[in-house]
Amino acid sequence: MERSLEGRTALVTGSTSGIGRGIALAFAQAGAKILLHGLGAPGQVDRVRAELAEITGGEVAYSAADLSDAREVRKMCAQAEEVLGHVDILVNNAGIQFTSPVDEFPEEKWDQIIAINLSSAFHATAALLPGMKKAGWGRIINIASAHGLVASPNKVAYVAAKHGIVGMTKVVALETARGTGVTCNAICPGFVRTPLAEAQVEPIAKREGISAEAALTEHLLRPMASRRWVEVEEVAQMALYICGPHTASLTGEILSLDGGWTAA
Ligand code: NAD
After folding, report:
1. Does the beta carbon of 192 lie inside 6 Å of ligand 1?
2. Is the pTM of this model over 0.70?
């Protein structure tokens, strides 16, 4: 394994689970020092913390900041700069989902999704960008979604937040393009095999009276021409590539990893 991130530091939001965990593990294997962040049962958080500690061979700092609160986002960033020295890489990954038709969509769910999936990325970027500029190097990676480029019914807040983060990515890229050493890009995955996404298969199978396999390929993964899950490792490796050498000109890019979803 090439240690392309030796000496680098990273804050990966929502790294206690799913895609964030995969990115944190890949970064740690490449030599980066990580601040683990996210919610979750103590058992789950401890497990990921232990996995990271085994790779890095040292204590792994952890933040349980609730990203629906702007002040907590800022505090998490201050903690990251304190324990890591400075933050080279910010991955805005934490996110939640809720589905309902727009006229029945609960107001508090709208506010929560916009706060966690969009506003937290703004606050973290604003807080950590000065340190990156000072260091003359930085990577900001926003985990958006195919839903940052196209819509689906019943996901009004999620689609709005993901389209928003795609726009924010381009603005930050333009503002940092000249002479800062900082880049900002978004990754837009299709359905990624995480426990959260896998849990959607069984209810579809029950509702439609079909097998889990048919529920997966004919319903959930239908928008993806590939009809296969995106694996967490695919997202992690793309994030790793963005942080590697020869990527100074890779900025403002909205990188799809969606098995052909948005090609149609
Ligand atoms: P996940 O549920 O496995 O992980 C989400 C992470 O966010 C967890 O660590 C959780 O603790 C954290 N989080 C949630 N709410 C939080 C809050 N209020 N404060 C702090 N942390 C909070 O989900 P995942 O599937 O790994 O998704 C990660 C990101 O990838 C999300 O932004 C999601 O929209 C995006 N994404 C997922 C898929 C997919 O199919 N799984 C596809 C495209 C994009």
Report:
1. yes
2. yes
State how far the Cα of 15 lies from the Cα of 12, in Å rounded to an integer: 6
> What pLDDT shows up at residue 201?
94
Contact 60, 85 (CB under 8 A): no
Which 3 state secondary structure label does DSSP give 110?
helix
Whether 158 is catalytic:
yes
Q: Other C-beta atoms within 10 Å of 211: how many?
A: 12
The helix or strand, by DSSP H or E, that contains position 9, with its residue range, turns out to be strand 9-12
CB 262 within 8 A of CB 146: yes
Q: Which atom of ligand 1 is nearest to the CA of 15?
A: 9
Q: Which residue's CA lies nearest to atom 23 of ligand 1?
A: 18
Q: What stretches of the chain show up as alpha helix (H) in DSSP?
A: 18-29, 42-56, 70-84, 107-114, 120-135, 156-176, 195-198, 201-208, 212-214, 232-243
DSSP state of 38: -
User: Which of the following is catalytic: 34, 95, 155, 158?
Assistant: 158
Residue tagged 């609160």 (tokens): 69
pLDDT in tens, 86-99: 999 999 999 999 99
CA distance 49 to 179: 36
Q: Is the CB of 114 under 6 A from ligand 1?
A: no
